[in-house]
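Severity: low
Component: inverse-folding endpoint
Summary: output formatting inconsistent between runs
Steps to reproduce: submit the following structure tokens with default settings.
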């Protein structure tokens, strides 16, 4: 009987095999599924294969309840088992391999005593109950053993509560463990979404450098920003806010409770390099002005202004881009309802953008996006030729400002114009007038279109009655060569 001698591959070859399977391993494509299955097979080949494959398989943990309770319960239960298994077990001890942890589930009220098992041994429960049962142990393991954790994402998926999940209703173990996680040195990115009643000092003494928040509201309402105490003091306690380098927030949670907007010597706001802010009202705008005044080394900024007709936005603003000598990339997005505009009036969003850009800047790449809703309150009157058939007097002041000495480094202007309507007539007229629109826009920007890269995206978003989630349709891409 012939003996079998295993083939001994060099370590370099083994690493190449594993590296090849690492393509899009954290994604959700069909190739990801195939590669993950192959990596699971590698767990049983050899010690080296097992160690390398395990690092990839458990590098990113995603726990989402959108696939239903049974699947979510199974994933949470299995992860809880693996994490709490002895670390000296040669096939387990995976907590140290976790770099990205993401959970999106219902964290709402759970029913006490509802974790009884059914006849087949499976728990009859809600997502909230399953989360309460297993999540505290998982988070504790992350706190003590996930020394390579870099990204932590926690989001409430409950659609019935637009205000988000009450943070104080979560088990105290979950709340306290999350707070400890924020202070750990390895963790650099935090995403928190859809929670209310969050303590105003939630980000006190954290080490987060990349901070993303959506629909995160504080427990206590504070005075308007102009009336708030100087610096980052809250209830007499001086907050120590983290060295944030990237801030992406809708400002539901006050930005001066996430980063220090003062320019005192101890402030670390000068570390801020990238900002992405939603601006809803005058108070939000004031905070942005203070933030940019303090974060004078910022390099990339995105400001999204919405509800321009619903709030009194200040046109005589203190926002000045000229001191931001390191800023090379600026994006300003506007969402506006043009239900009261006449064909001869300047859209308020365009007027506001021009006012902000009067100050000049060192920016190299400028993106302006105007999303306009042309529906009247009773849907009987639709103004469909205000934006995409521009008048010279509306746009030429912007062209003059951008092509003058205020923007000596500007090399690229991207102009995005999105039309939102429920009218098929608008879509037909829009498609028929694309060439006329190109001529009008080029005439409105004679200097910019001749001197620099000028790209205009024109799109129409239609919302048919049978569609509740329409996709953006790009109707035209009109480039002008430099």
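Observed output (run 2 of 3):
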């Amino acid at each position: 009987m012939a003996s079998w001698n295993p083939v001994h591959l060099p370590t370099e070859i083994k690493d190449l095999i594993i590296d090849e399977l690492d393509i899009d391993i954290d994604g959700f494509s069909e190739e990801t599924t195939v590669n993950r299955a192959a990596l699971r097979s590698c767990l049983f080949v050899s010690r080296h294969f097992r160690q390398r494959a395990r690092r990839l398989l458990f590098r990113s943990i995603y726990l989402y309840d959108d696939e239903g309770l049974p699947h979510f319960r199974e994933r949470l239960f299995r992860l809880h088992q693996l994490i709490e298994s002895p670390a000296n077990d040669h096939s387990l001890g995976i907590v140290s391999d976790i770099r990205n942890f993401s959970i999106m589930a219902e964290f709402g009220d759970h029913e006490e005593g509802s974790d009884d098992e059914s006849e087949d041994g499976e728990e009859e429960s809600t997502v909230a109950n399953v989360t309460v049962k297993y999540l505290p142990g998982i988070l504790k393991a992350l706190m003590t053993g996930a020394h390579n954790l870099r990204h932590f994402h926690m989001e409430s998926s409950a659609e019935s509560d637009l205000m988000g999940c009450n943070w104080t209703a979560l088990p105290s173990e979950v709340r306290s463990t999350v707070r400890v996680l924020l202070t750990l040195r390895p963790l650099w990115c935090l995403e928190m979404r859809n929670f209310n009643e969050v303590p105003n000092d939630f980000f006190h003494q954290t080490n987060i450098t990349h901070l993303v928040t959506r629909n995160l509201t504080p427990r206590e309402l504070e005075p308007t920003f102009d009336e708030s105490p100087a610096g980052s003091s809250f209830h007499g306690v001086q907050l120590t806010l983290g060295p944030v380098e990237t801030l992406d927030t809708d400002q539901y949670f006050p930005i001066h409770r996430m980063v220090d907007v003062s320019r005192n010597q101890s402030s670390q706001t000068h570390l801020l390099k990238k900002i992405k802010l939603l601006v809803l009202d005058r108070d939000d705008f004031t905070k942005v002005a203070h933030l940019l005044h303090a974060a004078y080394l910022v390099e990339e900024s995105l400001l999204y202004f919405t509800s321009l007709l619903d709030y009194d936005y200040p046109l005589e603003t203190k926002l000045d881009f000229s001191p931001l000598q390191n800023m090379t990339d600026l994006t300003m997005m506007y969402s506006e309802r043009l239900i009261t505009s006449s064909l001869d009036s300047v859209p308020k969003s365009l007027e506001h953008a021009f006012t902000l850009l009067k100050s000049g800047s060192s920016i190299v790449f400028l993106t302006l996006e105007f999303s306009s809703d042309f529906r009247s309150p009773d849907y009987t009157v639709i103004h469909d030729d205000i934006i995409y058939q521009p008048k010279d007097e509306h746009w030429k002041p912007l062209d003059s400002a951008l092509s003058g000495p205020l923007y000596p480094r500007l090399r690229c202007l991207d102009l995005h114009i999105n039309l939102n309507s429920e009218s098929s007539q608008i879509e037909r007229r829009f498609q028929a007038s694309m060439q006329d629109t190109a001529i009008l826009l080029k005439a409105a920007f004679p200097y910019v279109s001749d001197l620099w890269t000028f790209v205009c995206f024109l799109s129409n978003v239609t919302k048919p009655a049978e569609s509740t989630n329409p996709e953006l349709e790009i109707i035209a891409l009109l480039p002008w060569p430099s």
